[in-house]
């Protein structure tokens, strides 16, 4: 299985180089969504064939080792997950990141950041963000959206998340909004993005853009 894992990672980077020779791959999610939904350990064997084969987290270590070996020079290697603001999962991600950091295999942590106006609040999110930043690794906000029934509450939370990113911009190289307008979102029924249908700016868009000033 290690040979298969190494081959997959080696051939992925080789294909990127061959098919997109002018593309600069500046970062790469090596492992994604390793842990239980709300944290408290890795997915069990019944929910992860990797765990079923290996029995522990050694496949994660190996994946990062091979990625470090075959990624292009300067490409940052990331561990990414969702519900990362739930304390038990924050700890799972932090502990894995620190283990990988000790081996020199990781550069950053990805926070998917699928939020809602009723949970988590900005303080809960900030606690997780600061714990990840305390590792000394980079942090990216990778899939930000905020579901809501009240667009002003949504706007306030978007503003707070962007303020946090700006305040820590030296260690947060990217924030990605997970979609362009509500109608194309995977959570379209909950109005999660900066634009409503037809690319009409929402209060959240105005709040975020005002931060530029």
What features would you describe in this structure?
The protein is an alpha/beta fold. It is 43% helix and 17% strand. The protein is built from 7 helices and 8 strands, in the order αβααβαββαβαβββα. The chain has helices spanning 2-19, 49-54, 58-70, 87-103, 122-133, 151-167, 203-210; strands at 27-32, 76-81, 108-111, 114-116, 138-147, 175-177, 195-196, 200-201. The chain is globular. It starts with a helix and ends with a helix.
Distance between the termini: 53 Å
State the helicity in percent bands: 40-55%
Report the C-alpha radius of gyration, rounded.
18 Å
Low-confidence spans: pLDDT under 50, at least 5 residues? none
Q: Average pLDDT across residues?
A: 97
Give the amount of beta strand, in percent. Answer: 15-25%
Shape: globular
Number of helices: 7
The figure for the number of domains is 2
What is the total tally of β strands?
8
Topology as H/E string? HEHHEHEEHEHEEEH
Biggest β-sheet strands, sense, barrel: 6 strands, parallel
Counting helices, strands and paired strands, the structural category is: alpha/beta
In short:
This protein has 213 residues and is an alpha/beta fold.
Keywords:
alpha/beta; 7 helices; two-stranded antiparallel ribbon; globular; 213 residues; 6-stranded parallel sheet; 2 domains
Topology:
Blueprint: H1 2-19, E1 27-32, H2 49-54, H3 58-70, E2 76-81, H4 87-103, E3 108-111, E4 114-116, H5 122-133, E5 138-147, H6 151-167, E6 175-177, E7 195-196, E8 200-201, H7 203-210
Parallel strand pairs: 1-2, 2-3, 3-5, 4-5, 5-6
Antiparallel strand pairs: 7-8
């Amino acid at each position: 299985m290690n040979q298969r894992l190494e081959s997959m990672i080696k051939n992925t980077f080789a294909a990127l180089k061959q098919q997109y020779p002018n593309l600069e791959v500046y970062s790469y999610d090596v492992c994604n969504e390793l842990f239980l939904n709300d944290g408290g350990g890795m997915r069990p064997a019944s929910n992860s064939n990797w765990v079923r084969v290996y029995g522990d987290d050694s496949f994660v270590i190996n994946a990062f080792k091979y990625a470090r070996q075959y990624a292009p020079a300067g490409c940052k290697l990331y561990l990414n997950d969702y519900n990362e603001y739930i304390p038990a999962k924050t700890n799972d991600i932090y502990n894995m990141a620190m283990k990988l950091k000790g081996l020199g295999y990781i550069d950053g942590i990805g926070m998917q950041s699928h939020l809602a106006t009723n949970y988590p609040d900005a303080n809960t999110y900030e606690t997780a963000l600061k714990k990840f930043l305390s590792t000394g690794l980079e942090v990216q906000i990778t899939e930000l959206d905020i579901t809501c029934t009240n667009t002003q509450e949504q706007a306030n939370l978007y503003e707070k998340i962007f303020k946090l990113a700006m305040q820590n911009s030296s260690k947060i190289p990217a924030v990605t909004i997970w979609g362009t307008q509500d109608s194309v979102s995977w959570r379209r029924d909950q109005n999660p993005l900066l634009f409503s249908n037809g690319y009409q700016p929402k209060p959240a868009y105005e709040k975020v853009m005002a931060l530029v000033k």
